[in-house]
Amino acid sequence: MAADTGPRTRPTTGAAAVVDALEERGVEYLFGVPGHGAYPIYGALTHGSSVRPIVGRNEQGISFVADAWSWVTNKVAVCTTVPECGFTNSSTGVWQATEDGERVLFILEYDPMHEGVARSVALHYAQANSAEEIRPAFNRLMDLLETGRPGGAVLEIPQRVLVGQADRIGELPARPKHAAVDANTLDEAASLLSKAKRPVIVAGRPVVAAGAEASLLQIAEKLQAPVFVDRNAKGALPEDHPLALGFTWSPTAVSEELMREADVILAIGPREHAATGTRSPEQIGQTLIHLDWDAAQQDDGLPARLRLAGHVGDALSDLAELISGRDAPAFPAEALDAVREGPWRYAEGRVPWALDFFKELESALPRDVLFFTDSMVGLWIFRLLKAYQGTSYRFGWGNGSGTLGYGFPGGIGAKLAEPHREVVCIAGDGAALYNPQELATMQLYGMKVTYIVTNDDCFGAVRDNLQEGYGAPIGHELVNPDFVKLAEAFGMRGIRTETAAGIGDALREALAGDRSTLIEVPLELRPGRY
After folding, report:
1. Count of alpha carbons within 13 Å of 302, Cβ hemisphere only?
2. Is the torsion defined by CA of 23, 28, 31, 33 positive or negative?
3. For every one of its 530 residues, what pLDDT tens digit does the chain have, with 9 covering 90 and above?
4. What is the rounded CA–CA span in Å between residue 441 and residue 388?
5. 475 burial class (0-12, 13-18, 19+ CB within 10 angstroms)?
6. What values do phi and psi take at 319, rounded to 5?
7. H or E stretch including 330?
């Protein structure tokens, strides 16, 4: 529900200063769960504000809603939470934002236990110990997240400040400029790429966070260089483009052979996986150009011929202008086709019974879908299916936080950001019950989201990893609810398909409808070793 925007005057308290700062910055939403410690901020909203509270049913769940909203919009999602256990519940969301490069800022009442947790999961931490400090501290964190490396941030304010009188507001800090990559190093990188015979690009999340997809396309086409993507950049180069290889790299597949043949590799963001692969440090040190927001993850232990540290969007825009074009492809089309087909060839041997499911699923998804995946099914989807926008496919495991339960609440944040795009969320039956309470949040705000549960009545990855690694499974058994009835309990339509291949027709039916739908599909998978 929208906050009351009547003519009442807000009291001059620290909490009111928080709301004033949000309004001044143009913040649209305050994500959170009201409760002790957060009451002063919500109380300030009752006196009329343009800031709309978005309320979840669990602090972790709403933090994922906020993270996904930031992922779609490239704006800072501002959150609040109750202290102590409320913040520890939220801390997974802060860590998720830091690991995956989203912009999420938590404002909460100070507690002595918070700082240690906050500094371990957040990119930035600050305190405002007087009402006068609130405005500059808040804006400083917003500036850092908007102009530099994205991540999670935490601002703590003591309760005495939130409820106390606020007679003065602090000055706005000077907004930092985008950090510029050293011009000489940039020129050298452009020269190396222009002269390369077999260049390759590895694009990570910073490309999308910087809104630099157009520059990536320009560079790739000038160089005629194929582009691998990290999970969080899937779709940064539309995957029907002849140079797009998607998320297909593997240390044991033809994709690694292609990387070994490269004489120059431009890696944007990622430090591992395709950017380094199984090649020797000597080869990496001769071929790798590493671009990132700053030098924080460019330590001396990572071999690279050139390190470019600065605003990723500006650097890619400059590179696109500086490099010279080439006429001949860097690699023959057959080599790129072999890389793209690699995951499908692997799936034919590993999960042959599931191929029709993935083909039917892809055929039913709209081109501009906002698709949230979770658990083991997400790993397969990111390898096999094509994405066409940098903000299209989202996998909560991202850069390694490993969380389950992101997909269902994430879809809510995406729908809030883009109400006219279809949102589809998919999870295995294990992950589906990590944050199902947020289906009530979806219903509260009148959203239409389509949910898919692939059901094999167990933690499939636990079963197979223990079987293959330790000789026998244990702790994998599950007892599930009737997912159709669960959907109906949340005011949704429930559909159960008889076969995995029935997902195509069921999904088309759900997308054509006018309300949220949960589709239960029988599907057993195996963990990929690709």
Report:
1. 21
2. positive
3. 444 444 446 679 999 999 999 999 999 999 999 999 999 999 999 998 999 999 999 999 999 999 999 999 999 999 999 999 999 999 999 999 999 999 999 999 999 999 999 999 999 999 999 999 999 999 999 999 999 999 999 999 999 999 999 988 899 999 999 999 999 999 999 999 999 999 999 999 999 999 999 999 999 999 999 999 998 899 999 999 999 999 999 998 899 999 999 999 999 998 788 999 899 999 999 999 999 999 988 877 778 999 999 999 999 999 999 999 988 999 999 999 999 999 999 999 999 999 999 999 999 999 999 999 999 999 999 999 999 999 999 998 766 677 899 999 999 999 999 999 999 999 999 999 999 999 999 999 999 999 999 999 999 989 999 999 999 999 999 999 999 999 999 999 999 999 999 999 999 999 999 999 999 999 999 998 87
4. 28
5. exposed
6. -60, -40
7. none
DSSP class of 458: B
Burial 183-203 (b: 16+ CB within 10 A, else e): eebbeebbebbbebebbbbbb
258 contact partners, CB below 8 Å, separation of at least 6: 200, 226, 331, 335, 336, 339
Predicted TM-score (pTM) of the model is 0.95
- Nearest CA to 268 out of 322, 222, 217, 198 is that of 217
Answer whether 122's CB lies under 8 Å from 227's CB: no
Cα dist from 102 to 21, 374, 383, whole Å: 21, 18, 22
Beta strands in 158-207 (DSSP E): 199-203
In one-letter notation, the amino acid at residue 201 is: I
Structure tokens at 143: 């500036």
Spatial neighbors of 191 by CB under 8 A, at least 6 apart, are none
Q: Which DSSP symbol is given to 95?
A: H
The number of residues making up the chain comes to: 530
> What is the rounded radius of gyration, in angstroms, for the C-alpha atoms of the chain?
24
Give first-to-last CA distance, the chain, whole Å. 46
